[in-house]
Amino acid sequence: MHFKGSVQLLLIIIDHTNKEDGILDDMTLKERFVRSIKREEVDKVPVCSVTQTGTADLMELSGACWPQANYDPVQMATLAIAGREIAGLEAVRYPFCTTVIAETLGCAIAEGSFDTQPYQLDFPCKKTDDVNKISIPEELLESRRISLMLEATDIIKQRISDDVPLIAGMIGPAATAFYLAGANNYLRWCITDPDTLIELMNIGEAVCAEYANALYDHGADAVIVIDSEAGPDLFPPPLFESMVLPVYQSLTSKMKGLKLLHMCGDATAILEPLAESGFQGLSIEEKVDVAYASQLIGDRICLIGNVSPAETLLYKSRDVIRKEAKQCIEDGIGILAPGCGIAPRTPLEHLQAFVAARDEYYQEKRSL
Asked: pTM of the entire structure?
């Protein structure tokens, strides 16, 4: 018994020493990612992008280019994997646009070009009565854009290691309502016709739930819901808890895998309710102060972000990129990532410097 107790004590000491040295049993990328989302201890924070990863450099090096990579599952898989294999990001993230659900529900979408994403041309709900005409396709998972996404998921899973996390993106309930109603109607109806807007959000919630669970079934480890249209930059914060939060809680209760949310703009005013939304991870833009958000809600949700893709990653020097990335970790970020989608013209060496900054941070800490 004495010998057994001594061994257990030795193991505890070794385990404590390893943790102090930043070592946690050779975690795989997926283990580190999953543990971070669940706010469990890791050797170092993951560094990846939970938002769009297609860049001109990666297109040229991989041979998979927009607009084809938005519509061809093989090219989509190839370009998504390039973010991991060439840029070094510690996850594979796809697709590269936010138009899959919108087009499926009747929005007119232009396919974009080599360095522009697909974008909306027209929307079906010109007036409130048009909302009654919106319906979810009976064979939703067999619709063109969604079935393409599921096929791309299968291809990616066949081509990457099981140790690499796979992140699928889709728009959320508020963004769906925004696409269907158009910007002007969306902004007006949240005040004049909130029930109409909630009806559109509920349609979005139902589509997101079914679509997300199909992605999990095909092998996605996490689904990130892009729903910036519910953020304070567009949606009145006083209405968030009554109109949007219940829709989020309904959606997250149905999602079978890791569930993340991305919110562009300054989401500071709604951080508290977002922590109660049921999402396990929250991707925030650089307008949100990481240190403040970490102190406020970091014990309830994994914070993801938030180096600026448009200013820092695209235009700043590699030294500045490394400095800002390290500061994010210091301030308490749970997963180091760009604050929004990576700009298509972001130089590859900037992404590589971003990834390298994470390891440099821990090396510098150990040397102190």
From this structure: 0.93
